[in-house]
Amino acid sequence: MHGLPGGWSDMAEGLGEGRDARTSILVVDDHTTFAELLTGALRQETDLHAVGVADDVESSVRLCGMLRPDVVVMDYHLSGGNGVTASARILRERPGTRIVMLTGDPAQHVLEAAAATGICAFLPKDGSLATLLETIRSARCGTMAVHPSLLAADHPSRRGGAAVPALTQRELQVLRLMAQGHSVGTNARLLSISPNTCRGYVKTILAKLGAHSQLEAVAVASRLGLLTGRS
């Protein structure tokens, strides 16, 4: 099941180039029922617009290039590979694409591998529709999100003596707010600092954790146990 949903009039050419003010979405999932339910739910939202469905890695990359969606809702388990493979290829060709990954397997290595590709959100597949819709809307605005249930409180790697970077109290505060999916502006207001100062903390945190994105930093911090406790 891949391509434009049956009976839809949208053509591939020109999509994602400002023709429609709504957020355009490509659904990538090899479970027909889930994909149909999600696209049906998206039809009910006036500001969201599902432009197509793909069911494997190859079709997801091909359709993303054709349809140029604002957001891709990507399942982790796919035919021909997985959502991490597909996301990496899509973002290599179209770096501005926002990808929300869903998984029924919240393993730490999956979160870290997904975050390393540059996706913007990571959610459990059995989570609420309201949370998914909110995440899709936020994704287009440039925010990142990872569901709290996917952030383990303790990890064997930390207990086994893995090196934990030394973060200052303020850096830990910023990191934990990042894990809640807040924007830099929101974090700055919550901490009573300027946005530029907050961005400086984010850059330092990424450097200390060896991460290339805020989501990747949160994934690494989760593995190292840095998201627990108070500061």
From TrEMBL:
Gene3D superfamilies: 3.40.50.2300. SMART domains: HTH_LUXR (SM00421), REC (SM00448). The modification 4-aspartylphosphate is found at D75. It comes from the Bacteria. Keywords: DNA-binding, Phosphoprotein. Residues 160-225 form the HTH luxR-type domain. Residues 24-140 form the Response regulatory domain. This is Response regulator. It comes from Kocuria oceani.
